[in-house]
Design a protein that fits this description.
Shape: globular
Number of helices: 10
Largest sheet: 5 strands, parallel
Number of strands: 8
Strand content: 15-25%
Radius of gyration: 18 Å
Length: about 210
């Protein structure tokens, strides 16, 4: 099954996608990861992307689509995959239609107010990568796993979160109508518990949780 995950930053896409990939034994394909891998390996499309990255420019859609196409042609994608972070715009979605058949688009819906609370309250340990939320930390300021200080990432500062949400609404949210018109969109309430959301997605996909 070929699946796309949609939703604003902080909606829980990465967590749910990874869990579903593990259950279905299919790869989770992150645009950022495969872009960095292509650049590191010096593939033809990776070299094209490198020119833009080193110049501080956005990688053009046609180059991104080439990299996605190369990745989807690999053996581990034959039984399906989850695309996380692509497409981000309607033109990218239109280009994707020419190289892939998508079976389902999973949207995790969370309102802006709750996203800001969720993201701005997140604290991370730079040493081991553990993630916490201030609502559960109490007075603790160190990681319970390794004892290192917890920090708020720049990406999670309230003003940055607002900017990320603005970009999402302007560029990515139109994909919801795009995939609705193709009868591919399945919407889930991202404010529900992690386990409940997971079970609902798996049921919709017709898979055993």
């Amino acid at each position: 099954m070929n699946i796309i995950f949609l939703g604003p930053p902080g909606a829980g896409k990465g967590t749910q996608a990874q869990r579903i990939c593990d259950a279905l034994n299919i790869p989770q394909i992150s645009t950022g990861d495969i872009l960095r891998k292509a650049i590191k390996e010096g593939t033809p499309t990776g070299l094209k992307a490198k020119e833009y990255v080193e110049a501080g420019k956005l990688v053009p859609d046609e180059v991104l689509v080439e990299i996605i196409r190369d990745r989807l042609a690999m053996d581990d994608c034959k039984q399906g995959y989850i695309l996380d972070g692509f497409p981000r715009t309607v033109p990218q979605a239109e280009a994707l239609e020419k190289i892939a058949n998508i079976d389902c688009v999973v949207e995790l819906a969370v309102d802006d107010e709750n996203l800001i609370k969720r993201l701005s309250g997140r604290r991370v340990c730079l040493n081991c990568g553990a993630t916490y939320h201030v609502s559960l930390l109490g007075d603790r300021t160190t990681c319970e796993k390794c004892g290192e200080p917890l920090i708020q990432r720049k990406d999670d500062a309230p003003e940055t979160v607002l900017n990320r949400l603005t970009v999402y609404h302007e560029q990515t949210a139109p994909l919801i109508a795009f995939y609705e018109s193709r009868n591919l969109l399945k919407r889930f309430d991202g404010m529900k518990g992690m386990e409940e959301v997971y079970q609902s997605i798996m049921e919709t996909l017709g898979a055993k949780a």
